[in-house]
Amino acid sequence: MTALIPDPVLDSMPDSVPISTPDSEFKPTPSARVPTRLELFRNFALVGLTGFGGVLPWARRMIVDREHWLTDREFAELLPLAQLLPGPNVANIATILGRRYRGVTGSAVAVFGLYLFPTIITILLGYAYQRWSDSPIMHRLLNGLMPAAAGLMIATALKLVVSLPRDIQSLVLVCITFAAVGLLSLPLLAVLAVLAPLATWLAWRKPAVRS
After folding, report:
1. Which of 115, 101, 26 is nearest to 63 (CA)?
2. Highest mean pLDDT among 36-50, 78-92, 115-129
3. Residue 26: its pLDDT value, please?
4. Are the C-beta atoms of 34 and 101 separated by less than 8 Å?
5. Is 206 helix (H, G, I), strand (E, B) or coil?
6. How many CA atoms lie within 13 A of 197 on its CB side?
7. Residue 209 has pLDDT above 90, yes or no
C-alpha cells in the first residue's frame, strides 16, 4: 500500500476555491434591476391604466419605489431631459428606459403599453362626455378630480425636491424657476433657454456628488 505523503502546498490551499464564471461576474443590484420586455409592457400599461390625475406620480412610484429600475436621484436627473424633449414627459421616460434596457423594441413595448389602455378609455370617455357633458353629475365629478390631481403633482414635486443637492445654489434656481413660471407666467421655453444653460454651467463648475 502506497503511503500518502502530506504536501505542504496542497495542505495550505483552501477546501474550495471560488471560480469566476460569466454568471457570477455581473449580478444586478436591486437598485439597478434590468426588466424584461414583458415587464416593461406590463408595468407601463398598469401606469397608463391607473394614472388618473397625471401619470408622472404613478410612473415615479413604479420605476423608483416598486420596480427599482432607477434610484430616486437617477429619476430626478432623467426627468429634466424628458421635459426638454418633445412629447409627454412619461412617454419620453418610457422611451429612454426601454432603449436603455432592451433597445428599440424595449422602447416600443414600453410606449405601447403606456398608451394602450388610456387610448381606449379616452375614446370611451370622449363619447360619454359628448353625450352627457351638460349633466350636473359630470361637472361635480370633474370638480372633485381636480384637487386629487393637484395633490398628486405636489407630492411628486416634493419628492423630487428632496432628491436635489442640498445647497443654496439649487434652492435659488428652484425659487427663480417657480417665480418665473408660476407667479410671473413667463413663457416656459424662454425661462428654460436662460436657466437651463445657467444651471448646467453652475453644476459643471462644482464636483459631482451622487447619493
Report:
1. 101
2. 36-50
3. 30
4. yes
5. coil
6. 4
7. no
Whether 108 and 193 share a structural domain: no
Query: Grid coordinates standing for 7?
Result: 504536501
The range of the structural domain enclosing residue 210 comes to 166-211
Give yes or no for a contact between 80 and 195, defined as CB atoms under 8 angstroms apart: no
Angle between helices 72-84 and 188-205 (to 10 degrees): 140
Question: What length is written for the chain?
Answer: 211
Averaged pLDDT of the chain: 79
Look up residue 161 and give its amino acid.
V
Question: Which amino acid, residue 129?
Answer: Y
Q: Are residues 149 and 75 in the same domain?
A: yes
153 & 171 share domain = no
For residue 115, what is its C-alpha cell? 398608451
Is residue 102, in this structure, part of any structural domain at all? yes
Q: State pTM to two decimals.
A: 0.58
Name all contacts of 196-202 with Cβ < 8 Å and 24+ positions apart.
196/80, 196/84, 198/173, 199/173, 202/169, 202/173
C-beta neighbour count of 59 within 10 angstroms: 26
